[in-house]
Amino acid sequence: MLHNLAWLLGLEIEYDCSTFDTDPFEPQPDDMKTVFPFWVSGDEKSPGYVELPYTLAQDWTVFVLLKEKTIDLWKKKLDWIVKNGGMALLITHPDYMSFDADRCEYDEYPVEYYEEFLSYIKGKYEGQYWHVLPKDMARFWANNQTSMSTNSR
User: What phi and psi values does residue 65 have, to the nearest 5 degrees?
Assistant: First the structure.
């Protein structure tokens, strides 16, 4: 995913999700090295915005590029994020999911992998997480950025 955090300031946005904590398969090797949202400071024209790095490898990378047949990579990373109190943010692409149990194209993976991961989250971590839309996480982070100022850029 290509991004330039400074350029986004001119858009006067509340949040962005174009960065990642660490992902060796991205074309821009500038990982944020954090599993937490962070504040991107602006100037007098734009106050800044919250950046929400995705923290779990994208579905296409795991299941199409790497040809993984299980959700073990996602589970292992999620468990580590939880242990460290971070934010789990996953980007999935329905256009890469096969909704036909009998047929999966070369650039697709079974939707059951995603369903299994959601079941894993609910089964293992029910009552321990805040299931929220990115805009709501960004607003929470922005409203509390003073107390979280150690994680800003």
Answer: -70, -50
**Which of 128, 122, 129, 109 lies closest to 58, judged by CA?**
109
| Burial of 62 per CB tally in 10 Å (0-12, 13-18, 19+) | buried
User: Which of 54, 5, 51 shows the shortest CA–CA distance to 26?
Assistant: 54
Please state, as a whole number, how many other Cβ atoms lie within 10 Å of the Cβ of residue 69: 10
pLDDT for the residue numbered 150: 47
Query: For residue 65, how far is the Cα from the chain centroid?
Result: 18
Q: How far is CA 48 from the centre of its chain?
A: 20
| pTM of the full structure | 0.88
CB-based contact 39:24 (threshold 8 Å): no
- Give the pLDDT confidence score for residue 31 in this predicted structure: 85
Cα-based distances in Å from 116 to 7, 50, 66: 38, 30, 18
**In which residue ranges of the chain is pLDDT below 50?**
150
Structure tokens, 47: 């106050």
Q: Phi/psi of residue 111, each to 5°?
A: -60, -20
The 3-state secondary structure of 16-52 reads ECCCECCCCCCCCCCCCCCCCCEEEECCCCCCEEEEC
